[in-house]
């Protein structure tokens, strides 16, 4: 794929067929899929409990890690397939639920049948060099989908294993690791810890730096459930602006916008400029984080770009890591979803007629709302209702900017590139760390063509 970096830092598509060219260059021949079972005996014949936080986000997340040829990485590539396969068998001893299969429990919830049959592993060869993959600053399912293995004919997640892995060797000597993992098995931090444990096992480690804590019953619902918050994250908001027609009538474009440290500071300054008593003390203490400022900016810009009616209620969802917010905190290495979705709701008119501090303040309030009480209430809400968060008239921000996926060194150095294959839903925006020092943030999103042009103009002003 080809991208152009403008002087103001916005990264956009170049309309020259670069995306199609990348997909055309990347031809991959897969071998037969095999099952990699744990290298030692693990518990079998029972069901592994998944918490209510796991139930909410049972979707497949696909990521790709690309590694340079041995001359560029300074090591001997050897047989990456054999090294990663053997290390996977060893690390699955610790993460043995990943070797099982999803099922439905007696409570009519997702659980894992501990079969021990193994993770699906595929070796593949690409008919091109790693350089032909392009730049992972923007999801490209047409090209990157060749690097991740999906179960043919699977109709639902019960027919998909918790994880599949594909190792693709390139003509230049580099290779790519493509993972398809069910979000119900772990959140971003948990996935990062698993991949890094796999990597250090491949490098010869006997003991894991962060061994997984497998008992998810720590997050069982209370009996009876106690729902003490309104939980608007589950609310279905009517689409009075008829954005559904906009998405149906126009092509969906994906673009990536890079915010370097200077640009991020300008975003914070914009949010802080309007704060104060005259605006209802939008920001506590007149302060805000980079995340709060950037999230508020993107929420407002997307609202304007989509042309939402002033009376349109719009919801912002994002995940907050609850590991340290639970009382007591979740144990180190907790294997599962420790994140909780929090929310902010406003009308389009309120967002766009108020200074940026208003949107940033709503984000800040949503972050501060996430206490042990709120998270326990969310767990109990699902127990009582079996409701899942609604994306109607919603923006869902997923933040990967703090995840150290660059630490996935299997013996050939850190990945030269890593990133998502696609965004899971049209309502999702992804924040990714960017640059060697990881101080910049790439904002990835998809919008109908006309809305993307309007969003681009708004970003150009910053």
How would you explain this protein's 3D organization?
InterPro entries: CAT-like_dom_sf, Plant_Fungal_Acyltransferase. Pfam families: Transferase. Belongs to the plant acyltransferase family. Keywords: Acyltransferase, Transferase. This protein is of the alpha+beta class and 462 residues long. The protein has two domains: 25-219, Chloramphenicol acetyltransferase-like domain (Chloramphenicol Acetyltransferase); 232-461, Chloramphenicol Acetyltransferase. Helix content is 29%, strand content 23%. It has 13 helices and 18 strands. A hairpin with a 5-residue loop joins β7 and β8. α9 (290-305) crosses α13 (449-460). The model is unreliable at 1-21 (pLDDT under 50).
Summarize it.
This protein has 13 helices and 18 strands. The chain has 462 residues and is an alpha+beta fold.
Write the layout of secondary structure elements.
Elements: E1 3-5, E2 10-13, H1 18-25, E3 28-30, E4 34-36, E5 47-49, H2 52-55, E6 60-67, H3 70-73, H4 80-94, E7 101-104, E8 110-113, E9 119-126, H5 141-144, E10 163-169, E11 175-182, H6 188-202, H7 243-249, E12 252-259, H8 261-273, H9 290-305, E13 313-321, E14 339-347, H10 348-353, H11 356-369, H12 372-385, E15 394-399, E16 417-420, E17 428-434, E18 440-448, H13 449-460
Parallel strand pairs: 9-10, 13-15, 15-17
Antiparallel strand pairs: 1-2, 2-12, 3-9, 4-9, 5-8, 6-11, 6-16, 7-8, 10-11, 12-18, 13-14, 17-18
Helix pairs in contact: 4-6, 8-9, 8-11, 9-11, 9-13
